[in-house]
């Protein structure tokens, strides 16, 4: 499988000013939204955001990059994006806001409405799918 690149650059934060401002003022919300989509609804935005916030407060922001790095790796692997764990670690350690914005934009590029959350995305994807009535299928 050929490796893909991120759909936008690390420093393209201003290509989506809304997510850039959100990340600047409330990085825990951006992280929570990204994590809920990356986990396919297995974790909530609120839970992940609170965990990020707690880790961010510990030692004045010293540990939130650890959980951020893990989710960056998860998103990268889900979409076949080139890179490795070391690069993910350095990206979150050195420039976490840019990394969170890039991940948010990537999830949007992959077709998710990150703001809506996992359940709304699944609902939106299945809304247009209709099945043939059982009786009609049996007659054929």
Automatic annotation (TrEMBL):
Q: Protein name, please?
A: Uncharacterized protein
What's a Pfam family this protein contains? PLAC8
State the organism named in the record: Cinchona calisaya
Which InterPro entries does this one have?
Answer: PLAC_motif_containing
């Amino acid at each position: 499988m050929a490796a893909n690149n991120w759909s936008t650059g690390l420093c393209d934060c201003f290509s989506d000013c809304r997510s850039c401002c959100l990340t600047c003022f409330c990085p825990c919300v951006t992280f929570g939204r990204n994590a809920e989509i990356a986990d396919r609804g297995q974790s909530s935005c609120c839970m992940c955001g609170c965990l990020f916030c707690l880790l961010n407060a510990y030692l004045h922001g010293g540990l939130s990059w650890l959980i951020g790095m893990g989710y960056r790796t998860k998103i990268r692997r889900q979409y076949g994006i080139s890179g490795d764990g070391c690069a993910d670690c350095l990206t979150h350690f050195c420039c976490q806001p840019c990394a969170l914005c890039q991940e948010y934009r990537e999830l949007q590029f992959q077709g998710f409405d990150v703001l809506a959350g996992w359940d709304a995305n699944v609902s939106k994807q299945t809304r247009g799918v209709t099945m043939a009535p059982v009786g009609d299928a049996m007659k054929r």
